[in-house]
Amino acid sequence: MFASSFFDVKVPLAFRTELQEAGWVVGRSSVHSSVTAADGTIKLLIKLEDNRLVETVGIPVTDDKGSVRLTACVSSQVGCPLRCSFCATGKGGFSRNLKAHEIVEQVLAIEEVFNNRVTNVVFMGMGEPMLNLKEVLAAHRCLNKDVQIGQRMMTISTVGVPNTIKKLASHKLQSTLALSLHAPNQKLREKIVSSAKAYPLEAIMKDCRDYFHETSRRVSFEYTLLAGVNDDVEHAKELAELLHKWGPGYHVNLIPFNPIDGTEYKRPYRKAISIFQHTLESSKITVSVRQTRGLDASAACGQLRNEFQKVPLASSFSDGIQPEPEPESEQEPEAAVAC
Questions:
Q1: What's 28-297's CATH class?
Q2: What span, in angstroms and rounded, lies between the C-alpha atoms of 196 and 222?
Q3: Of 61, 59, 44, 149, which is closest to residue 102 (Cα–Cα)?
Q4: What is the pTM of this model?
Q5: Are 32 and 11 in contact (CB under 8 A)?
């Protein structure tokens, strides 16, 4: 139940006592540990009620006028069952989905640490949001209606789970859909993304095109650049051809690989990143390069959690079994005001 997030500061003690006596859990999960990078990025490791650990990251950016944009990168699962080859989260295994209030409280924890309002939220932390879509949507509603973060200031990321992009489109959110692509063709994508065989590239691109037509919101394609794997000029040209084939409304966000332990992947040189970007721009593809933040704070998803809890506690799912998305017919509850 949702009686957990705002009570520490906004609910009178007498009312909190009444709620506790009625069987509600009042209060928030504690911060187990934190790491601060030289650039101001702070990663929090949050200890949940069942002692599992999840990460959330606060990323502050000050513009030329001195105003601060504070982005919270939130997790949607404890670990991740998809195990993409370059991702630290998958290496730590999968335990369970997060509840909506456990997602929302990550944003509140970031606000407390920075003593500032979160302006942007990205569902790009630990886990696959589309495998926990019901709770992600409930958290999204709470963040929008109760925490008062605009829908256009939120991004929901996915590596691609069959049938879920269509379901998300039906909600007609004004938030951005970010598709973790990482390769311009199916063969290479299967090498990088272990779940790619279940959701062929052609099917993903069709669903992204339909998403754009349904919502009028452009799709952002996340493309992690891995040195010598997917970062040469031919890959950039092939990516441009793929996007032009499926129509307008797309944006590419290039992400230079954030090094993690236990992988052979390497970060490309700046020249290779620049050439890849220029090749896309020459093909009239809108592109940006994500500024790497928090390299000295284990900022890649899953790194910090793996230091403290390398193997999740007892899992609700057997090894290798992915949790299924919520059934299409199930009614989604409205987020409670006190989430």
A1: alpha beta
A2: 15
A3: 44
A4: 0.81
A5: no
